[in-house]
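Q: Sequence in, structure out?
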Amino acid sequence: MANAAVHAVDDEVEAPAKRDFLKILTVSAGAVALGATAWPFINALNPTAAELAVSNPIIDVGAIAPNTAMRIVWLGQPIYIRKLTPQQIADNEYIVPDTLPDPASYTDRVKPGYESFVVVVGLNTGISCELLGNSPTDPRGPFDGWSCPCDGSVYDPLGRVRGGPARKNLAIPRFTFLSDTQIQFG
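A: Exactly. Output:
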């Protein structure tokens, strides 16, 4: 009789353990099935290769002649990439930033090692108007930079505001030099 009582206790102990194991196994299988079902939907939210190419374009700047600029459109904004002449660099390198409406030094506006290139968003910071000055024949204002045909704001070749109603320098987009001739945005 004592043997039968011990056997009954063992069955009672094993039954909950088996049920717990089956519950864990069922929940685990359900989680795996849910993950396998949801993965295609989650993966569809990732950008495609074409979208990545548009959001992080690589631009060849090797063909830009000194004293000219290239215009591209990135994320709906005009981006100007200008190659400065040695004279433009010399004229702007040592301007005292405190004398400017929006103080910024030469080194704040160019990437180290690539000082002959300036990359800015080509929209006036006073009013949203595209600037003139990418071509040497465009009106550039007294500082040989960019000028706004809408409100008369004037910028130097580094994109620093120098006159007119605008009070902020041209924005600098996110970019990296991959080499001496390639820039990647983003």
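The helical segments are 2-44, 49-55, 86-93, 106-109.
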